[in-house]
């Protein structure tokens, strides 16, 4: 199916449900695994630097149908008192040499933990949308022939299933069965990646904690699965995609 056909509405609606932050904590792992086994999650993105990364990778090795990508982690920032402040910084994101070395190290760690290449690439707090990480991550995606979030033609990114605004304020109703079903019913033709952040135990660090359990409950709600079936949406993982059929934009 060509992209021209998709634009005319003849392409099927295909949905990848990708859970970020795999490996960040035991509770995040538990939530993602639960949503994979009992819900609609099909893929996950692994943070290799965190203590629970080995356990997440072990589950991935034992369950190869779960598509696992690399969640590049250069730091985290939180909105406080009207400004963004650093929670932690792995390397200065604007330092191209340091970023290149760190991203290569995280890719090597992923391969050691999981035993294969990632099926897709993205990053914590979307740091790879900006240079120099943008070019570094996009180049790795091109070399490996795998999708890179935001920058692979033919895969639309949807971040609407998220409980906070850009300044950390609660978005009422964003994490609900009704809202997720509304996203599904208006899903365009072609391939969409729906990003999510499920977790249990409330043990995740950072700004996004209690919302994770709410996400997990919604992602496993039978009404959501029924809506996917009623809308005739094809649920798939990154591994399921025929990569040769998805054109990639030049870096």
Search tags:
251 residues; alpha/beta; TIM Barrel; seven-stranded parallel β-sheet; 8 helices; 9 strands; 35% helix; globular
In short:
The protein is α/β, with parallel strands linked by helices and 251 residues long. The two termini are 24 Å apart.
* Alpha-beta content class: alpha/beta
The radius of gyration over CA amounts to 17 Å
Percent range for β-strand residues: 15-25%
Q: Considering DSSP H and I runs of 4 or more, what fraction of the residues is helical?
A: 25-40%
**SSE run:** HEHEHEEEHEHEHEHHE
Number of domains: 1
Name the CATH architecture. Alpha-Beta Barrel
Identify the quaternary structure here.
single chain
Overall pLDDT score: 91
What is the CATH homology-level superfamily? Glycoside hydrolase/deacetylase
User: How far apart, in Å, are the first and last alpha carbons?
Assistant: 24 Å
Number of helices: 8
Tell me the overall shape. Answer: globular
Tally the beta strands: 9
Low-confidence stretches: 1-9, 246-251
* Largest beta-sheet details: 7 strands, parallel
CATH topology: TIM Barrel
Question: CATH first level: which class?
Answer: Alpha Beta
Q: What does the model show?
A:
This protein is of the alpha/beta class and 251 residues long. Helices cover 35% and strands 20% of the residues. Strand 1, helix 2 (26-38) and strand 2 form a beta-alpha-beta unit. Helix 2 runs parallel beside helix 7 (210-219) and helix 6 (177-185) runs parallel beside helix 8. Mean pLDDT is 91; it is low at 1-9 and 246-251.
């Amino acid at each position: 199916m060509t992209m021209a056909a998709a634009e005319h509405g003849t392409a099927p609606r295909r949905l990848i449900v990708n859970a970020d932050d795999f490996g960040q904590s035991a509770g995040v792992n538990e939530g993602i695994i639960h949503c994979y086994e009992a819900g609609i999650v099909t893929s996950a993105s692994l943070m290799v630097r965190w203590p629970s990364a080995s356990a997440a990778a072990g589950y991935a090795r034992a369950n190869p149908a779960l598509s696992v990508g690399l969640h590049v982690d250069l730091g985290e920032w939180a909105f406080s008192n009207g400004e963004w402040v650093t929670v932690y910084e792995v390397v200065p994101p604007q330092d191209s040499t340091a970023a290149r070395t760190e991203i290569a190290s995280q890719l090597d760690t992923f391969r050691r933990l999981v035993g294969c290449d990632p099926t897709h690439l993205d990053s914590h707090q979307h740091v790879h949308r900006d240079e120099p990480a943008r070019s570094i991550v996009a180049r790795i995606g091109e070399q490996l022939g795998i999708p890179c979030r935001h920058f692979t033609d033919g895969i639309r990114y949807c971040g609407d299933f998220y409980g906070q605004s850009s300044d950390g304020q609660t978005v009422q109703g964003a994490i609900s069965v009704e809202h997720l079903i509304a996203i599904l019913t208006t899903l365009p033709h072609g391939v969409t990646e729906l990003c999510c952040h499920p977790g249990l135990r409330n043990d995740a660090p950072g700004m996004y904690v209690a919302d994770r359990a709410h996400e997990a409950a919604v992602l496993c709600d039978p009404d959501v699965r029924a809506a996917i079936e009623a809308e005739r949406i094809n649920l798939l993982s990154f591994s399921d995609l025929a990569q040769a059929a998805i054109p990639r934009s030049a870096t």
